[in-house]
Design brief:
By secondary structure, the chain is α+β, with helices and mostly antiparallel strands. Helices cover 28% and strands 19% of the residues. The two termini are 28 Å apart.
Length: 253
């Protein structure tokens, strides 16, 4: 097992100075676009029959339930394949629905997760979207209030002061803290997790906790944090063997 890196020297943080907290999010959330797929749609000259046609169609595939059935121009999604679309038209037996009015359109193949993705997706085809306000605040930088800034600064400084430390906090109350031990696997995170107070059988030890680290955790420590279901992880310095740069955490500057 890789030994944990020695703690880097970090200057004491001045609460009055400007700090920067950088959210590290899943690339699926930071992407501005969503993938697309082709679908068969029918253009209807008589818009009054749209409701009748939709009522006779099967539901869209489960993976495409985020799509609206009708496009901006009034065309209607009917099938993923040309062959399937022609069969549906034949079964409908409606003179208003003709094979020559079939067209291939591009539609978002997944539901957008962010406002930016939704803005892109709706240019392809109307789609449903329910914003996650916490994610939106992380993306636009408005998540960090002055009180939140001081909260993070304070606990990060404590993690640094105890020597390459790891601290678990819940509701602004210290639950557990530790620095590395002499044991080969005694990284600060492992020592901190080992001293977390026991909870009810229905809860994991770290449920709802914020964890503050002097250094970015290694793979072993990161998996321990995942296993114990901590809420958020903040760290001050990147590590050569750190693994959270591509995961969901927050880096402190």
């Amino acid at each position: 097992m890789t030994q944990e890196e020695p703690a880097k020297k970090i200057r004491k943080i001045d609460f009055c100075s400007e700090i920067k907290v950088i959210p590290i999010l899943d690339p699926k959330l930071t992407a501005n676009t969503v993938p697309s797929t082709s679908y068969q749609a029918i253009s209807l000259d008589n818009k009054k029959v749209i409701g009748q046609i939709i009522g006779r169609l099967k539901e869209l595939p489960e993976r495409l339930q985020h799509l609206k059935r009708v496009g901006k121009d009034g065309s209607v999604l009917i099938s993923e394949s040309r062959e399937g679309a022609e069969k549906i038209i034949d079964e409908l037996g409606n003179g208003e629905v003709r094979v020559e009015n079939l067209k291939t359109v591009q539609v978002p193949s997944i539901k957008p997760s962010t406002r930016r993705q939704f803005d892109y997706a709706k240019q392809l085809w109307p789609t449903g979207f329910h914003p996650d306000h916490e994610i939106e605040r992380l993306l636009d930088g408005t998540f960090l209030t002055s009180s939140h800034r001081e909260y993070i600064s304070s606990w990060i400084q404590k993690a640094i002061e105890i020597g390459n430390g790891s601290i678990a906090v819940q509701d602004s109350v210290l639950l557990s803290s530790a620095s590395p031990s002499a044991h080969p696997l005694g990284h600060s995170v492992m020592e901190m997790v080992g001293s977390l107070p026991k909870r009810s059988e229905s809860e994991y030890l770290g449920t709802g906790c914020d964890v503050f680290l002097a250094n970015e955790p290694c793979a072993m420590c990161a998996m321990a944090l995942v296993h114990f279901r901590v809420k958020r992880v903040f760290y001050a310095c990147e590590s050569k063997n750190g693994v959270l740069k591509e995961a969901s955490a927050a880096r402190f500057r």
